[in-house]
């Protein structure tokens, strides 16, 4: 196992004043914000060690209580593109995109000119013969000229959407699934990694679900689900020069997950360093320094942002590695203060096989009777002074319009059963979604799937996270009541009763219309007329890379963004600047 050389990797060694190369802002502040998630209000760097221990305990509790698990991936980095490992044979026009041992045959699209000169790499080949649509671009001026030209090729249904899959040995992906018993120390995860990450099929649950398409899905299996979809993506290409984006099939989430507990920092980072070593030495990396590369890390971002260098720090360092900073990491909870991760929905129980299945479900939840005005499924956080959960529980108990499902450890835990919490959400108009130990909750997606209008108390729970998948105007599909208002004893019931029936109807209809975008459909039969969470994510990545490439071609260069404001960029309206005041500034301010 390779230990990275500290001199090679400019990441903060201490929780101190390391500067971020790009923004010049202090990394410790960002780290502090992140660490705050685990520290319940700790603020001082001096307390770091103590807090790290606390953080670890908190994480343990979170992972145990939610009966989900974190997974992890390790990360690491080599900084420079390394040439020594390049094997020309690795590239070639027509390599089927997936080399792992999967059963499905990858769909390979025919390319007009799939031959690239493997000795020169993408940097100089520019795609061989310029495609006819590229006449407006200087031929081969950029390694991605051909890919950009394909975007303008109306005759190519995949034009501008091709994805090239980087080749990795199966130990970086499918082997982890085969060896699922090693994923988590306290629970056998094999049942949840089965069925392409959907987990075991569920019966109709006494009418709560449909007969087919419902699974007992774990919330941290996005790595597998995404991979299963990607291997059947309709626009795979074996020709990197044609690709709109490069998918790296590294199961970063599962990797870190199996090393979160009881492993030292070296073990947690080992595979991350390896994967970076491999991908940065490939010719595809050089085209854009990895800015067109993406991968999944199906846990929350804090599992990959270890601050302390010692073994006491939580998680891996994956996301701080310079190479990874250039890539897009797909997580289920992103950092408000970093640009290299993007949040995609937690998996829910519904994995439809057809548009029809979605329509039938939407019809069902639209017509349901909802006896409860609002409901809450969850547990208090007695250890956290900042948590508003106990206030919500108190209010819910006191209201005849609220139904409470208290989650507790042990066999009597109703929250452990998808049928019981989905039944609750299906009989409620509004579903309360406070923060948990971190900002986000899988429950927000369960609620929307049930046609229940989510009530959020912190913008970090959804509004600044799932900006690809949810409408920008949060009032269209949700209610926002600030945590401060709850602490001031604002009545939830009264706030919700103030919303007119017509407005409720409109919001619910929007929620129902969002169902396809927040579920992961069956890989074998994707949806025809609607985009699921996977489609939305791939489109967004392709857009992001294409925009960046156009900026480079037009000489604008990459837009300089300040990491500390990463939460704010997607919220900006025309003409607004990121420094302009925002009502949520204080919520995302550094301590
Ligand atoms: C980390 O743990 C591994 C076993 O998981 C062990 O082989 C290695 O020596 C440890 N490294 C350090 C620096 O403690
Ligand atoms: C990250 O991208 C920048 C800009 O393309 C590039 O200069 C840098 O070398 C890349 N970093 C790595 C580790 O490849
Ligand atoms: C909060 O409001 C409820 C109902 O309005 C009231 O009964 C209760 O005493 C209030 N609690 C506090 C701490 O103000």
Automatic annotation (TrEMBL):
Q: Give one GO molecular function term.
A: glycosyltransferase activity
Checking InterPro entries in the record gives: Exostosin, Exostosin_GT47
Q: Does the keyword Metal-binding apply?
A: no
Query: Span of the secretion signal?
Result: none
Ordered alphabetically, the record's keywords are: Glycosyltransferase, Golgi apparatus, Membrane, Signal-anchor, Transferase, Transmembrane, Transmembrane helix
Q: Which residues cross the membrane?
A: 43-61
Output the superkingdom of the source species.
Eukaryota
Q: How does it sit in the membrane?
A: Single-pass type II membrane protein
Give compartment(s).
Golgi apparatus membrane
Give the Exostosin GT47 domain ranges.
158-495
| A GO CC term attached to the entry | Golgi membrane
Stretches assigned to coiled coil: none
Which stretches does UniProt call biased (Basic and acidic residues)? 17-29
Q: For the region Disordered, what residue ranges are annotated?
A: 1-34, 86-138
Task: Indicate the family of this protein.
Answer: Belongs to the glycosyltransferase 47 family.
The protein in question is named Exostosin GT47 domain-containing protein
């Amino acid at each position: 196992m390779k230990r990275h050389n500290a001199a090679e990797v400019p990441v903060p060694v201490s929780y101190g004043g390391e500067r971020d190369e790009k923004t010049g802002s202090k990394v410790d502040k960002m780290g502090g914000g992140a660490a705050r998630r685990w520290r319940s209000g700790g603020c001082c760097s001096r307390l770091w060690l103590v807090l790290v221990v606390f953080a670890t305990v908190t994480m343990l509790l979170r992972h145990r209580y939610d009966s989900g698990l974190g997974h992890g991936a390790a990360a690491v980095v080599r900084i420079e593109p390394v040439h020594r490992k390049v094997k020309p044979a690795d590239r070639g026009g027509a390599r089927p995109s997936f080399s792992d041992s999967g059963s499905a045959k990858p769909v390979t699209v025919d390319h007009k000119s799939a031959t690239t000169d493997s000795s020169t790499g993408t940097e100089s080949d520019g795609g061989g013969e310029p495609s006819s649509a590229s006449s407006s671009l200087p031929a081969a001026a950029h390694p991605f000229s051909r890919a950009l030209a394909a975007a303008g090729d109306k005759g190519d249904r995949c034009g501008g959407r091709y994805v090239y899959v980087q080749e990795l040995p199966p130990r970086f992906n499918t082997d982890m699934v085969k060896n699922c018993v090693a994923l988590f120390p306290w629970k056998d995860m094999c049942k949840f990694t089965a069925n392409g990450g959907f987990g075991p099929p569920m019966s109709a649950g006494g009418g709560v679900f449909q007969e087919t398409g419902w699974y007992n899905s774990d919330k941290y299996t996005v790595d597998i689900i995404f991979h299963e979809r990607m291997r059947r993506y309709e626009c795979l290409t074996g020709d990197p020069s044609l690709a709109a984006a490069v998918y790296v099939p590294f199961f970063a989430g599962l990797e870190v997950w199996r090393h979160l507990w009881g492993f030292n920092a070296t073990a947690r980072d080992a595979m991350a360093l390896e994967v970076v070593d491999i991908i940065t030495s490939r010719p595809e990396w050089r085209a854009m320094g990895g800015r067109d590369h993406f991968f999944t890390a199906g846990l929350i971002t804090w599992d990959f942002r270890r601050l302390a260098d010692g073994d006491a720090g939580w998680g891996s360092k994956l996301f701080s590695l310079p190479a990874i900073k250039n890539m897009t990491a797909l997580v289920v909870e992103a950092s408000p203060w970093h640009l290299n991760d993007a949040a995609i929905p937690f998996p829910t129980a519904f994995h439809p096989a057809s548009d029809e299945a979605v329509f039938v479900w939407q019809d069902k939840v639209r017509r349901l009777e909802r006896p409860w005005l609002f409901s809450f499924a969850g547990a208090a956080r007695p250890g956290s002074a900042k948590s508003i959960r106990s206030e919500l529980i108190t209010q819910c108990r006191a209201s005849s319009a609220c139904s409470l499902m208290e989650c507790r450890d042990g066999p009597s835990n109703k929250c452990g059963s998808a049928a019981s919490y989905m039944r609750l959400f299906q009989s409620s108009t509004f579903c309360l979604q406070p923060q948990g130990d971190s900002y986000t909750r899988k429950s927000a997606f369960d609620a929307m799937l049930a046609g229940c209008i989510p009530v959020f108390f912190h913008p970090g729970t959804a509004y600044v996270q799932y900006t690809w998948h949810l409408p920008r105007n949060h009032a269209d599909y949700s209610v926002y009541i600030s945590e401060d208002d709850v602490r001031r004893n604002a009545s939830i019931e009264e706030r919700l009763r103030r919303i007119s029936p017509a407005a409720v109807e409109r919001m619910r209809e929007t929620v129902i219309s969002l169902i396809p975008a927040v579920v992961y459909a069956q890989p074998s039969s994707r949806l025809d007329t609607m985009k699921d969470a996977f489609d939305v994510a791939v489109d967004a990545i392709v857009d992001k890379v294409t925009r960046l490439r156009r900026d480079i071609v037009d000489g604008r260069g990459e837009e300089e963004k300040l990491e500390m404001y990463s939460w704010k960029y997607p919220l900006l309206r025309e003409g607004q600047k990121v420094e302009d005041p925002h009502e949520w500034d204080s919520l995302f301010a550094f301590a």
